[in-house]
Specification:
Largest interface: B-C, 31 and 26 residues
Strand order of the largest sheet of chain B: 2-3-1-4-5-9-8
Radius of gyration of chain B: 28 Å
CATH superfamily of the largest domain in chain C: Chloramphenicol acetyltransferase-like domain
Number of helices of chain C: 8
Strand content of chain B: 15-25%
CATH architecture of the largest domain in chain C: 2-Layer Sandwich
CATH architecture of the largest domain in chain B: 3-Layer(aba) Sandwich
Shape of chain C: elongated
Number of strands of chain C: 16
Largest sheet of chain B: 7 strands, mixed
Radius of gyration of chain C: 36 Å
Structural class of chain B: alpha/beta
Number of strands of chain B: 22
Shape of chain B: elongated
Oligomer: heterotrimer
Strand order of the largest sheet of chain C: 9-16-15-14-12-13
CATH superfamily of the largest domain in chain B: Thiamin diphosphate (ThDP)-binding fold, Pyr/PP domains
CATH topology of the largest domain in chain C: Chloramphenicol Acetyltransferase
Mean pLDDT of chain C: 83
CATH class of the largest domain in chain C: Alpha Beta
Strand content of chain C: 15-25%
Structural class of chain C: alpha+beta
């Protein structure tokens, strides 16, 4: 798997669209810098699914302290956080 | 390799052609020295990976024998101090500098660095004397193929303290293998003077083994010609030799470890053979050579610097090569043989089939010859049927393993028998630092070596003849460990290891299985997972309930005992028991095993080996990492020496009752 | 004095040899050194010589027998009519294992059905699967329950005539099936709900989320923590009925319903009362994420003593949860509207009465510090 910012953001967005669809929401217009929880597109359970998927897909493990808006609030931040964690940034 | 950049003419193999006149020798020697200085300069600038060992002062010595090797089948096996040998053999200055800098255009792409280089028939490695037995193996193969080629195995005087060297000299002597042991005697090993490390004479060592022995000094005006003459004599007599070259190391062993007094260093400068060559040519020639070499090395440096740092496209997760797609059907190989009754006969029949079908197969080991036929009779009848290809060796486990590696590198398919698996520790350096390293580092190096070893206890053979050392060997990166049983097609496993699996392989055979009837019983093979390399050649088999109360994973000689325990658990405890028996322990067929085991409620791994840090630990860790939520336990031999008395031994190695108790404890 | 002829060791590595033939028979006279027969390994055939002059008393082994090295294959005597010694005491006695009074499989069945071994009549001195099944068959009230998953084929349903495929359930699906079966057969369930103000909890959770900068609102985790606190102070909530007696759990093992992919099950945080509020929120978050990734350990999918179920996500205004096995209280949380929400609980009426449930729900409807 090649890890580029673009590919990570695209993959996360696809997952968000999938999760939002479960509760009948459409997340296809989500912008990279939008604060995901603030959009209301996915609820806390959906966020949990997203984070569990994020940990599993990218083989990282998150601590509760790290689950912050600053770290993971938007597509951009999630991608950056991952690249930093992987030592690629 | 960058062929555009070499200021010397080359022969058809690409080797630089260096004349034996003082001007030519000085020109190349000076270029080697300036290259070493460039490397030291790069080191000082922090541009070199790790450390490096230069040959400053020994350039003329390092060039001599390599320069004279003019047959395309000649081989050079070098050591940690190899730059002069490599440059003389390859002329690839940019490749060496870039390699040491860890750049993509390095001759080995940055894998090897200063010490580990492979190029055509040149191989160097970083363990003292580690290449010596390999050289004997290659030389034996050269002789068998009828080639003129010889092997130059080059060591320093510091290496004279290594035991493997003497196993190698002995093997070279009894096999009359065309290998020249070149001892570059610079009088010092890293920081310790030779006089403190060598008892007796250096040449006496060669004579004791019956080698032809020569001694030269690299200051001698005719040194290059003398060296070439010795190469010629080697070719003519076709046997082994030893050449001691007295030389002097101007630089430190590595970096910053030269503690010799100044007067001694001054004396070395005064004896410098390169300087002596310069005295024999004109000042104008020297100036021209220095100018040309300087300009050339500026270009070398800039090309090396321009090459990007070596990177992985993906970090390799293993170094195994894919199976070879050829037929190795033992039944087809050996259609007329009588019925195979037990495991010993199955292995013996497979060996007969392999020998008949493939001339490349050779067998090395102790006491293999008829009528003895090996300690466990697995090789019976082979030496009479295939003379010259079954080699009964001296008691030199490391040496014959190294020779096996050399034969494998020279396109043979060697099978090395180690009489008791306990003795495999003697082979460990050859396996761990050589057999598995070369294929992992050098794409063109093949080591299709199979080491067979009877293992296991329950015979009262005591602490050093009863062990099951798979726990140690599964941890060797790049080593395949196959351990079949009477429930596996044992002969086919061996044929697959020899013909279809191009990786160094340890093939374990439990002593008690030899007489066991070969019978698949109710076992079926698991479908090999697509990700599991080798799992189709060395299958995992399964028997018993598909909805078991307990799953017993076991292998090799433990299996008959596990079967006995399973019968009692079924009959006396009414449990549904499943048995899973892999024959491939490393690389572990993870996907195949997980697919089966994921939903099992209770798994006990039973092994005869010391289980702590071993095979069962790996299997259970794999299950835990993949979210397995049933109960697990493991049973093996506690980490204490195995006793000789049968009554003590049987209390140490798991038996049926121990297995049953372990299962009942889990429920 | 009789003399034995032993099966000899021919090779270090063979423990058994095969008797090929005897050249003498019982009663024959033999001389010392005379060949009496042959044995074979898979490498060689060897003659057996008589060690003494004498008469063959007995040929212990038969041709083609595989015998252990060192065992007696024949006896010789000075007289033809000497008695043949009994060498059975020389043979190592195979030690037999002490069998337990209950087979392992029967023990598993007893555990599964919550039966005591004392209640089951033995068969030939042991409690076997058959013994347990006989006991269960006699107990008709348990028969229905055992029918669904007992191994005996005769108690199983046959597939319908209509075409279809049999799909094996996942671990989670099996858990759900066991839950509803218990719910039907054991507790006397009731359901009660109260209406409550959403604002205090929302405000409390929002403050914590903002303070920590968290991605997710800790609201549900905080309400669940409140349940742990309430269950600690009102231990009756944290108990169940076993054979007409109330069983009071020592730890509070908090069950939390999780929807992971297609399956719904209880994830369990054991001994939750040993944590503090923040550690609990953190531990529950971790549990939920691992549950979503199907990475729970077995101890985290079983053993709940009190539970919390939220269907807020699905925007339902109320739901009546199924009571998990051997618990008495599960909270039902749903989506609110216009500042008001509904908080309900399914409970085991054998353990709790309505007033106790209402009191607990009221405590849960506001943060403790409020």
């Amino acid at each position: 798997m090649t890890l580029s910012r673009e590919s990570i953001e695209a993959a996360i967005k696809a997952k968000i669209v999938e999760i939002a669809a479960q509760t009948g929401d459409d997340a296809s217009e989500l912008e990279p810098d939008e604060i995901i929880p603030a959009t209301g597109l996915i609820d806390s359970t959906g966020l949990l699914d997203l984070l569990a998927w994020y940990e599993k897909t990218y083989e990282i493990s998150l601590a509760q302290d790290e689950l912050t808006i600053d770290n993971l609030g938007s597509l951009t931040r999630m991608a950056e956080f991952l690249l930093r964690r992987k030592g690629l940034l | 390799m960058d062929t555009t950049l070499c200021p010397f003419d080359r022969d058809p193999t690409g080797k630089p052609i260096v004349g034996s006149d003082p001007r030519s020798l000085f020109a190349f020697g000076h270029l080697v020295r300036e290259t070493e200085k460039l490397i030291l300069d790069l080191f000082g600038r922090g541009l070199v990976s790790g450390t490096t060992h230069t040959c400053l002062g020994q350039e003329i010595c390092q060039m001599a024998v390599v320069r004279a090797l003019d047959d395309p089948r000649d081989h050079v096996l070098s050591n940690h101090r190899n730059h002069g040998h490599f440059l003389t053999y390859s002329g690839d200055f940019t490749g060496l500098v870039a390699e040491i800098m860890g750049r993509e255009s390095g001759v080995c792409g940055g894998w090897g660095g200063s010490q580990h280089i492979a190029y055509r028939n040149f191989h160097s490695n970083g363990v003292q004397a580690g290449m010596t037995a390999i050289g004997v193996g290659i030389a034996r193969a050269l002789k068998a193929e009828g080639s003129r080629g010889i092997v130059a195995t080059i060591i320093g005087d510091g290496t004279l303290g290594e035991g493997l060297l003497y196993e190698s000299m002995n093997l070279a002597s009894i096999w009359q293998a065309p290998v020249l042991f070149v001892v570059e005697n610079n009088g010092i090993a890293q920081t310790t003077y030779t006089r403190h490390t060598i008892g007796g004479g250096i040449e006496d060592r060669g004579r004791a083994f019956g080698l032809a022995v020569w001694r030269l000094n690299d200051q001698h005006p005719e040194f290059a010609g003398q060296s070439a003459d010795i190469v010629g004599q080697m070719r003519a007599h076709g046997g082994p030799g030893m050449l001691v070259i007295d030389t002097g190391r101007l630089g430190p062993h590595s970096k910053g470890d030269d503690l010799r007094p100044e007067a001694e260093r001054d004396a070395l400068v005064a004896r410098d053979p390169l300087r002596k060559l310069a005295e024999r040519i004109t000042a104008a020639d020297i100036a021209a050579i220095e100018t040309a070499n300087k300009a050339f090395l500026r270009e070398v440096e800039s090309r090396a610097m321009a090459s990007p740092l070596s990177t992985f496209q993906a970090v390799p997760q293993h170094s195994f090569r894919a199976a070879i797609d050829v037929s190795a059907d033992v039944a087809a190989m050996n259609p007329t043989k009588e019925v195979v009754a037990n495991a010993r006969q199955a292995l013996n029949a497979a060996l007969h089939g392999l020998f008949e079908r493939d001339d490349a197969v050779v067998l090395l080991g102790e006491d293999l010859h008829d009528p003895y036929g090996g300690a466990f009779k697995v090789t019976a009848g082979l030496s009479e049927a295939f003379p010259g290809r079954v080699i009964s060796t001296p008691i030199s486990e490391a040496g014959i393993t190294g020779a096996g590696i050399g034969l494998a590198m020279a396109d043979r398919k060697p099978i090395v028998e180690i009489m008791f698996a306990d003795f495999l520790t003697l082979c460990m350096d050859q396996i761990y630092n050589h057999a598995v390293k070369f294929p992992g580092i050098f794409p063109k190096s093949n080591v299709p070596l199979v080491i067979r070893a009877p293992c296991g206890g329950r015979r009262g053979y005591g602490p050093t003849h009863s062990q099951s050392p798979e726990n140690i060997f599964v941890a060797v990166p790049g080593l395949t460990v196959v351990y079949g049983s009477h429930r596996h097609p044992l002969g086919q496993l061996l044929a697959n290891a020899v013909e279809r699996w191009p990786n160094p392989t340890l093939f374990l055979e439990h002593k008690l299985l030899y007489g066991e009837k070969l019978d698949p019983g109710g076992y079926e093979s698991l479908v090999a997972g697509a990700e599991d390399m080798g799992a189709d050649l060395f299958p995992t088999v399964r028997s018993g309930s598909r909805q078991p109360d307990v799953t017993l994973i076991s292998f090799g000689g433990m299996l008959p005992v596990v079967e006995g325990a399973a019968r009692k658990l079924e009959e006396e405890e009414e449990l549904l028991v499943e048995i899973v028996a892999p024959s491939l322990l490393a690389p572990l067929p993870r996907q195949s095993l997980l697919a089966l085991l994921d939903s099992r409620p209770l798994i006990l791994v039973v092994e005869e080996s010391h289980h702590q840090f071993g095979v069962s630990a790996e299997i259970l860790a794999m299950l835990a990492e993949n979210g397995f939520s049933g109960k697990v336990a493991r049973l093996g031999t506690p980490p204490a020496p195995i006793a000789s008395a049968r009554s003590l031994e049987s209390a140490q190695i798991p038996d049926e009752d121990a297995i049953i108790s372990a299962v009942l404890r889990m429920l | 004095m009789a003399t034995p002829i032993h099966a000899p060791r021919i090779n270090n590595n063979d423990d058994e040899v095969k008797v090929l033939a005897f050249e003498v028979e019982k009663g024959s006279h033999v001389r010392s050194g005379q060949i009496v027969g042959q044995i074979e390994t898979d490498k060689a055939v060897l003659d057996i010589e008589s060690p003494v002059d004498g008469y063959v008393l007995s040929l212990v082994a038969q041709p083609d027998d595989l015998v252990k090295v060192g065992s007696v294959i024949a006896w010789l005597g000075e007289q033809a009519d000497e008695p043949v010694p009994d060498d059975s005491e020389m043979a190592p006695v195979a030690t037999s294992r002490d069998l337990g009074s209950i087979t392992a499989k029967a023990r598993l069945l007893l555990k599964k059905h919550g039966l005591s071994a004392d209640a089951v009549a033995t068969i030939n001195g042991r409690i076997t699967v058959e013994a347990v099944e006989r006991h269960l068959a006699a107990d008709t009230s348990r028969l229905a329950a055992s029918n669904r998953d007992a191994p005996g084929a005769d108690t199983r349903e046959t597939p319908p005539e209509i075409p279809g495929v049999m799909l094996s359930p996942s671990r989670e699906e099996r858990g759900m099936a066991a839950t509803v079966a218990w719910h039907r057969d054991h507790p006397a369930t009731g359901y009660i709900e109260i209406e409550y103000d959403l604002a205090p909890w929302a405000k409390y959770a929002k403050k914590m989320q903002d303070d920590k900068g968290w991605m997710m609102s800790p609201l549900l985790s905080l309400m669940t923590w409140r349940l742990v606190e309430v269950a600690t102070t009102s231990p009756r909530l944290n108990s169940t009925m076993i054979n007409d007696q109330r069983y009071q759990y020592a730890p509070v093992n908090l069950g939390f319903t999780i929807q992971a992919g297609e399956t719904l099950f209880l994830a369990v945080l054991r001994d939750a009362a040993s944590l503090d509020e923040e550690a609990f929120v953190s531990a529950l978050g971790d549990l939920q994420r691992r549950a979503a990734g199907h990475k729970l350990r077995e101890t985290e999918t079983s053993g709940a003593t009190v539970s919390f179920s939220s269907m807020e996500r699905w925007k339902v205004s109320r739901h009546i949860p199924i009571l998990p096995p051997q618990t008495s209280f599960i909270v039902a949380h749903a989506a609110g509207r216009d500042g008001k929400g509904v908080l309900g609980a399914t409970y085991d009426h054998r353990v709790l009465n309505g007033a106790q449930v209402v009191a607990a729900l009221k405590l849960l409807s506001r943060p403790a510090s409020d």
